[in-house]
Description:
Its EC number is 3.4.11.23. This protein is of the alpha/beta class and 461 residues long. 32% of the residues lie in helices and 21% in strands. The chain has helices at residues 23-28, 32-40, 70-73, 103-112, 138-156, 164-178, 189-192, 196-202, 242-245, 253-268, 313-325, 340-346, 358-370, 405-414, 448-458; strands at 13-19, 50-54, 60-68, 90-96, 128-130, 181-186, 210-216, 222-227, 229-233, 273-283, 295-297, 303-305, 331-336, 351-355, 375-378, 395-396, 423-427, 431-432, 442-443. Strand 4 (90-96), helix 4 (103-112) and strand 5 (128-130) form a beta-alpha-beta unit. Helix 8 packs antiparallel against helix 11 (313-325) and helix 10 (253-268) packs across helix 15. The protein starts with 12 loop residues before the first strand and ends with a helix.
Amino acid sequence: MPARFAAPDTAALPLHLIESDGLDPWLADQPAPVAAWAKASGFTGALGTALMIPGPEGAPVAALAGYGTAAQRARHRFPLAGAVPSLAPGVYRIASGLPEGGAMTESLGWLLTGYQFTRYRAGSDVTRALVAPEGVDAGRVETLAAAEWLTRDLVNTPASDMGPDALEAAARALAADHGASIEVITGDDLLARNFPMIHAVGRASAQAPRLIDLRWGASGPLLTLVGKGVCFDTGGLNLKPGASMGLMKKDMGGAANTLGLAQAIMTLGLKLRLRLLIPAVENSVAGNSFRPGDILTSRKGLTVEINNTDAEGRLVLADALSYGDDEAPDLMISMATLTGAARVAVGPDLAPFYADDEALAAALAQAGGQLADPVWRMPFHTPYEAMIEPGIADLDNAPSGGFAGSITAALFLRRFTAQAKRYAHFDIYAWQPSAAPGRPKGGLGQGGRAILGALPEVLDL
């Protein structure tokens, strides 16, 4: 169950955020026993530390959270979250020290510290609740946390329990919760309905490939989200080495992120029409696997030479994007754990995105900064179009040479979005490689809050 704020009228301990150079001035205004206790405990205001202040009877009457320096806080997405695990269980209210403009981010970080993946083992029942700071839209922040919760749970679940069947079930549950409609095209029906590349990539799996199509909202601009749902990626006949296969349960991270974003949009009741397309497949090895050297004809009619079966994500996305593009949406966004090249370019912490529209790109960057969801614009560099044109077919799914791998993948996808009024592509990682405040190791939402924050401006909501 996603974390929630404590009720405003809950009895709560005052929590003071103390910067490293602000401890002495703060202590000077406190009763002598409080100052003596803080000094005897060695509390310095270091970032991520905490100290409980006892009253005359020994029970805590307040707490301090180290807030470090501005330079130290700049290195963390959720600076306060690092101190939360060191606080005693209970309910807290931030009494002082919260910088102007930091209430939403820090309160979101607090909620996210409560995340635990408990499907396969019991979690801790210790809770540290927060009363929402004054001026914070508690419902909206709880919605953001719940979206992140859903995304993390989906990514963290192994393919044994999160194959195409289970991903469909998750989408159906979301649709039922919010009164959305859903259609799923499965197996050989994909061929009958002209989704040849989704079928080709997923046909070797024990679970049939499918295209999940969720719709919500009756009026307003049309937003179409397309999430890569490769529930496990062996690499196909271009089999990945064992070490490279270890995290491939997260290759449906694009689908997980779009499901989390869709949940937030529907919960908030945004005045738009939402369409969510998820090609859900497993890239497996069998006698009917698609092969290197094959040429596939896409839904759009463009032919694609397969030079590496491990570059399958762009194939299933292409058919889904082409389907979504038929409606000329006001905004279409694809999200995918698409290339290792993106990780080499920006590392795991940033969500790189591509957009030709300057206003869209600016809105995404601004919203990402405001909502603790950093994104970074990458170029749709048109001169590289030649790199995805092999000569024998219209497109190459894996250009040789190794240069600009994320850019060429994005250019490949752009070929299938000609009618969309605006298009952006996110090449995300969807994984936190090591624990950080508010972000335990494991599945991660990336780009969703930035998109959500940009929608009002981009779609004039």
